[in-house]
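This entry is set out below.
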Amino acid sequence: MAAADDEAAQWRFVHNAPETADDQRYDYHWRVLRAALEVTRGKYGDYRLEPGEPMSEKLQVIEMQRPQGGLNTLVLDATLALEEALQPVKIPIDKGLLGFRVFLIQAEDQPRFADVQSLEQLRQFRFGQQREWSDVAVYQAAGLPVISGSSYEGLFHMLMLRRFDAFGRGVTEVGGELAHWRKKYPQMAIEDGLLLYYPLPVYFWFPRTDEGSRHAQRVEAGMLALIADGTLDRLFTEEYGEVIQRFNLHKRRMLRIANPGLPPGQPFDNKAYWFVP
């Protein structure tokens, strides 16, 4: 038993915790990570997977860089600054689905969005985003007005106070968020015709240390195995298949914008990695 405990201690993955009690954004990602660690158990041995203390994204990145920091595993979308600080496993956990965005709005505003056919028309609206999210720079580079908030939870209140017109959310996130916030704000709704897309690969990240490199190597091997045997596709469909159908992604008016903060060397040529509506 002691030997197994020692082995697991070498493969201890401490990941970012939910930011609030109702934050379920990363549940799927940890299922994928657990599957990647399970499929590599024969080669690498036992492991421990556990959450760290709740903290903002900014603090998560700082904690990842501290010697003996409280986190050694992170899920975040790719940016140049993040890649300079940490090492990614460049296999998108959600097949790039987070880059497909719909908007939370006030239900009575739906007619204002119904005629939008172009990026130029979209620029007449104001969009809420959290100050430290990489999305802010993406919106601004596309000429979309951004009103930034200091907390994830606060943005839902700001929307209903009309501090901005729409809150762009990943299709993977928005259903659960609406179900939760509609209890307090019955007028909150998902805009029903638009789909904004920008490349936003979400990766597992590790410190630039010897341990971080070992962890990244094991997780990359596990992710490749999950792709090869179809497990990642199955997990993806179980988690998001109903969402993709519910939001009729293939029927929405899709507007594409660039992500200027994305580092070079993204694996866009590997079709097996990506979702296409």
